[in-house]
Amino acid sequence: MIRFYFFLSLLALIAVPEKTLAHGANIEYRQTAAITIEAKYDDGTPMANAQVVVYAPSDRATPWLKGTTDESGNFTFVPDTKPENIGDWDVKVRQSGHGDITSIPLSEGENVADTQLASGGRGYTSAQKAIMAAAGIWGFIGTALYFSRSKSSKLD
Amino acid sequence: MHIPDGFLSPSVCITGYALTGGVTWYCLRQIERDRNIQANIPKASLLTAAFFVASLINIPIPPTSIHLIFNGLMGALLGYYAFLAILIGLFFQAVMFQHGGMSTLGVNAIIIGSPSIAAYHLFQQRGRLGSNKPVLTTILSFVSGAGALLLSAAMFAILLVTNISPDMDVNAERTAILISLSGYSIQAVIEGVFTVMLISFLEKVKPELLKS
What we know:
The complex is a heterodimer.
Chain A: E1 9-15, E2 30-38, E3 51-55, E4 65-68, E5 74-77, E6 87-95, E7 98-106, H1 126-147
Antiparallel strand pairs in A: 1-2, 2-5, 3-4, 3-6, 6-7
Chain B: H1 10-32, H2 37-54, E1 58-61, E2 64-67, H3 71-78, H4 81-97, H5 105-129, H6 134-162, H7 170-205
Antiparallel strand pairs in B: 1-2
């Protein structure tokens, strides 16, 4: 029953490479782009502590990164910007037999500080769901009515 | 309890489809011998509608949430029609709500559908042991409803535990699956009680529905 809405946002994060000197400290910084996913069950409950596996475009068979989501279903990772890793990053989230896989397109020069929001795109609103369910039910009821019509009502 | 696309290897999915094909053929052959097909199809169709919407209702039981299946109830009321009804219901759930998946339709039909046939045979013991004993009817309907669900949950857990992708943390995922089994045992009690209520209601209102 479980589908997820994945929200992808590109955030500006500050990465701090460590560099220890004998008697002084020196801090270098650079800005990179990170991807945050938010995994939810389709009733809106966050998938807490679910397993996440990230696959890079250069090698889709071996996991590039493994981790778990936090209490509110969020998981953040910093994709590397090697030229061979430009393309679709696959992120798989899974918990006790429920889960989904989503593709995150990453193009060159996208490590700017703007935030994008994207979702898996398969989410229906509850009104849409209700209409679809009603249509399905009506189909089954129609079948029942067709087969239960009395013999005298046939035209032959 | 529906396994989504991408969780099982292609060989498992194909095996699931092959088994479902075989069981469907067997059920159709049994239905062909039924003298009262015209009267039973509407019943099957209405219960398919109930099965189809029941899965949209979530009941949160931490750490996961469950949704009602009613496969035991369908087996007790429909007999061999139940497997076909469940197969059709699962197809529409997968197509309309991505609940389950097309590649795993065969596997899901075996997981959810085959216990309903077991429930049917169990419930048929009522005719042999005496259908006028209300206590016996209550016990048989509870065991049909709850047992079919537990059987499904066991098959679901075994399939998933033996098919955890090596990319995952196998131990953590196995623990999560075993914890979810506790949720299914609560669900089994809920469905068992519901089956008892519905069957005792039908017995008072329309007892001919229970004879098949």
